[in-house]
Amino acid sequence: MEIYLVRHTEPAIEKGICYGQADIDIKPEEFRMSVSGIIDQLPDDIDIIYSSPLKRCRHLADHIQSLQYPLLQVRLEQRLKELHFGDWELIAWNEINQADLQPWMEDFVNKRTPNGESNMDLHVRALSFLDDLPESANKIAVFTHAGVIRSILTAVNGTALAEAFSLYSVGYGEVIVVRYEE
User: Fold this and answer.
1) Measuring CA to CA, which residue among 49, 42, 109 is closest to residue 73?
2) Rounded to the nearest 5 degrees, what angle is found at the Cα of 23, between the Cα atoms of 117 and 105?
3) What is the pLDDT of residues 139-173, one digit of tens each?
4) 51 bridge partner residues
């Protein structure tokens, strides 16, 4: 099957703020400028649309569904949420206690943020989602976040999760196509 991984457009939040599962909206102007380019990269024959329930993904998925796939419904999927940064959500990165941040930076794959998740937790969620995709689907659109996309790319390409940030750059509004077979 072909999976079209679509990252949300630019969020309406200041640069340098830690956010993951905080339900922030998108910048309207960037959204409007990105939609047609995203649609151009999606095939007409999508079978299923999944989206993270967070506004920045859900809004994009709903908008594209209404324009391009009016007979389909967007299926909200909790496992497609971004990494939960716990106590760090909506705090400036440079204001996070270095005694907490440094160990996480050294082992972000396994170390959980305070009251949050590790990248391995996110990875397990993402793989669980992939494993539950219906085999009958040929083309699936997935509206999600950079962390989930990187995690899926490591699984599909057989690369180490620890190398996800250095190997996979995922821009706002970017569409990445992967072939997935269980």
Assistant:
1) 49
2) 30
3) 999 999 999 999 999 999 999 999 999 999 999 99
4) 76, 143
